[in-house]
Amino acid sequence: MIATERALFLDRDGVLNFDSGYVGTIDRFEIIPGVADALVKAMRLGYRLIVVTNQSGIARGYYTAADYVRVERHMVAVFAALGVQFTGIYHCPHHPDGVVPDLAFACDCRKPGPGLLLQACADHAIDPLRSIMVGDRPSDLAAGKAAGVGHRFLIGKPTSAEGAAFVSLADLIDSATFEAMARSA
Ligand SMILES: [Mg+2]
Ligand SMILES: [Zn+2]
Fold first, then answer.
1. Is 121 annotated as a binding residue?
2. What is the extent of the structural domain holding 108?
3. CATH number of the CATH domain containing 25
4. Whole-model pTM over 0.70
5. pLDDT tens-digit readout, 5-55
6. Ligand number nearest to the C-alpha of 113
7. Which residues are catalytic?
C-alpha cells in the first residue's frame, strides 16, 4: 500500500479538551473553544484527523477500559455534531507502574514511543513525512519525531517552560505557518 494520505495527529487531553487530569468520565470532557472549527478547516485542507492519546489512567485503575470507551464515544458524537470526523482514534492503556496486571508493562505505544502513530500510518496509508503532530507536552512531539512525522508543534500557554509558539490548536491552524504548510505539500 502506497502512503498517500497526510494526517493531523492530535494529542487528546490539553489539545482537544481541557486536561483536568485523568479525564475518565464524560462530565469532565470539555472541548477547548475554537477546536472544532479548526479541525473542520484542517479536514478541508486535506488532513486526516488522527487522535493519539496516552490513557495510563486505565493501567493505574483510575478508570476502566469501558469508561475510556464511553468518553471516546462521547467525544466522537460531540465533534460529529460540529462537523468533525476522526479517521482514527488510538490510545495507550499501559503504564509500567500500573495496578492492572495485564496493562502494567513498558510498551512501545505509550508516547514518547511511536507505536500509536505507526499503527495509524499502517491502517490509513498515511505518509508521516507530510503529516503534522500537535501536542501539549514534549513527549507528544518526541513520539511524532520517532514515527517520522515531518511537522511537529507544541501548543500551550505562552509562559510555559517549553516555549510553545501557539497557545491553542485553533491558534496554530489559523496561523500563516499552518496555511503555508497545508498549501505546499
Ligand atoms: Mg496532552
Ligand atoms: Zn501502550
1. no
2. 6-129+142-156+168-184
3. 3.40.50.1000
4. yes
5. 999 999 999 999 999 999 999 999 999 999 999 999 999 999 999 999 999
6. 2
7. 11, 13
